[in-house]
Amino acid sequence: MIPVNSEPSTPPHDQPDSPGGMASPPGGLLVVKVGGGLLAEPGGLEKVGWALSSAGTRRRLVVIPGGGPFANLVREFDRAHGLSPSAAHWMAILGMDQYAHALADYTPRARVVDDQAGILGALDGGRVPILAPFRWLSAADELPHSWDVTSDSLAAYLATLLGAEELVLVKPVGGGEELVDPYFRRALAAGMRWRVVGAGEESLERALAGQ
Q: Which of 17, 154, 167, 193 could be 125's S-S partner, Cβ–Cβ 3.0 to 4.6 Å?
């Protein structure tokens, strides 16, 4: 695990936990990566946000955002102006931080966090932690700086560090290996369960329920 160097912060839109707040649900940890592609689906963000909040009352889960339109802007800038691989890598990950705040706005009981301590604190307070990953990933910096390493691989890597039981990738449609990037399998812990589910499908709620 990456050492924790500071206390988690509370974002402006969040409210402090009450002393009698909901306890963290039991069970193994589920990591849910929410892709930016669902923004093209009418009501997709709202549907997924409510599903995450509901699932968070029944099991321990951590949300990792994709890059969404923020990372796409980095791709466009890279194509137009030619960034170094490292600059593009970190700019895209900062895009994931921005999407984390957007997801939190649509997820009741969400809290944006940036480290393991923040995740644990949110879970203990009955919140849904949404990880803004730049701080953690820049401290570790173990993955290649390449567009072949997308937020799918970053989510697999973070799920591995967190010792997750399962990784669920939420995309506009469900599928399998054909929907993940070339580095994904190398970032995923051996034996970790994973699946790709569509944001508008019943399989999303089943996946979040562990079915």
A: 17
pLDDT in tens, the chain (211 residues): 433 333 333 333 444 453 334 455 556 899 999 998 888 878 889 999 999 999 999 999 999 999 999 999 999 999 999 999 999 999 999 999 999 999 999 999 999 999 999 999 999 999 999 999 999 999 999 999 999 999 999 999 999 999 999 999 999 888 888 999 999 999 999 999 999 998 876 778 888 887 7
Structural domains of the chain in order of their starting residue, each with its CATH number: 53-208 (3.40.1160.10)
Half-sphere exposure of 71 (CA within 13 A, CB side): 23
Q: Structure pTM?
A: 0.86
